[in-house]
Amino acid sequence: xxxxxxxxxxxxxxRPVMHGWWGSEVVARGKFVSWVGAYGTVxxxxxxxxxxxxxxxxxxxxxxx
Length: 65
Prior knowledge:
alpha+beta
């Protein structure tokens, strides 16, 4: 398992605010949920959890679907 495979990024109005890297998808998803709770009220906030090995977004908040 690649130690920095899962990347979580928080942006506000398109500007980076903070980010983190995890080797475990389970841990990264837990952080995603935690960050939505902690930072979801930041104006213009957007969170993206990505799998950098597969080059794809796993989950995005707010849901754009």
